Amino acid sequence: MRFRLTPRETSFYDMFAASADNIVTGSKLLMELLGADTSARAEIAERMRAAEHAGDDATHAIFHQLNSSFITPFDREDIYSLASSLDDIMDFMEEAVDLVVLYNVEELPRGVEQQIEVLARAAELTAEAMPHLRTMDNLTEYWIEVNRLENQADQIHRKLLAHLFNGKYDAIEVLKLKQIVDVLEEAADAFEHVANTVETIAVKES
C-alpha cells in the first residue's frame, strides 16, 4: 500500500460500511416481498422507502464529509463514485418494490426470485467488503464474484424477458412486469459498478 506522510480522514470507511449494511436491509425487504400477500406489500414498500431515505442520508453524509475534508483516504472522484453507486442500488431496489405495489401486480413471473437471490448475495458480499477498504486486503475475490453474479443476473434477465414475451401475458401486463425486471437488472448492474470502483481504488492504492 502507498505510504502517506499525512493523516487521513477515516470516517469514510464507517460511512461506506453503514451504506452497504443498509443495502442488505433493502435486499431482505425484496426477499420478504416475494413471499408476501398482496395485502402486505404496501407495508413492505413503506419500510423500503424508509431504508431508501436512510441510504440517501448516508450518501449525503459522505458527500458532506468529502466537501469538508482536506485529506481523504483515496481519490475524491472514487469516493464520489462509490457513494453514488451504493445509492443507486438502494434507489433501484426501492423502485422495484414501489412498482409492484403501484401496478397491483398479483403474481410476479417465475424467475424474479432468482433475480432477487442474486441481489441478496451481492448485497452480502458488498457489506462484507466495505470494511476491507481500510487495508485494501482480501478484496479481489469480492469483485470477481460480484462480476460473476452480474453475468448470472444478465442471463436470468434475458430468460425473464423471453418468458414475458411468450404470449402468456397481455400487452399491458408485459409492460408492467418488464419494467420491474428491468429495474432489478439495473440494481445488479449497480452492484457491479460498486465492485469495479472498489477494484479501481485498490489498484490505485497498491
TrEMBL record:
<comment type="similarity">
    <text>Belongs to the UPF0111 family.</text>
</comment>
<dbReference type="Pfam" id="PF01865">
    <property type="entry name" value="PhoU_div"/>
</dbReference>
<protein>
    <submittedName>
        <fullName>DUF47 family protein</fullName>
    </submittedName>
</protein>
<dbReference type="InterPro" id="IPR018445">
    <property type="entry name" value="Put_Phosphate_transp_reg"/>
</dbReference>
<dbReference type="InterPro" id="IPR038078">
    <property type="entry name" value="PhoU-like_sf"/>
</dbReference>
<dbReference type="InterPro" id="IPR052912">
    <property type="entry name" value="UPF0111_domain"/>
</dbReference>
